[in-house]
Amino acid sequence: MPTLADLAARITSSRPSCGPVRLVAVDGPGGSGKTTFAGLLSEALNGAPVVHSDDFPIPWDQGPESWFGHLRRDVLEPLGRGSAAVFSRYDWRRAAYAEPIEVPPADVVIVEGVSVARASCPAAFRVWVEAPREVRQARVIARDGVCHTADWLVWTAAEDDWFAREPVAWDARVDGGTFGISWA
To answer: Which overall architecture, per CATH, does domain 4-176 show?
Structure first.
């Protein structure tokens, strides 16, 4: 079974895809383990910067594709020009924008979030993270609170629709429970 070191080696041997950056898109449904895996991958890539979809405003009822315009404008376009990207992190508890985050045009930058590995994303490498629906729901409810159970149902229906229309052509698949890796 491939290791994180194997995955990191494949990524660093790929060609830059977003200006000078090898962009890695970590995708999968909500609660599958994308954020945790992106952190592990960042460590394996010597601290590669990670951009999280949760740092952008994504209303539950607008579906997973709604945040990508922010990512494109604030992160991908500057990186594509070889410039640092700067965006204001969205603070979900305060429902307001918070401190600015700077993303340098590093050798590798990881972006993680539902729908990020879409065909229009200039990714050098696409990673799909998956876990059973009941595991994902339990994780999301633990993270966001039981008061968001109805929101979760709306969100997962939108995710299911998105992935049916825009299946991810992944290079590596990750089990969101064990973080075991397999190649496409």
So the answer is: 3-Layer(aba) Sandwich (3.40)
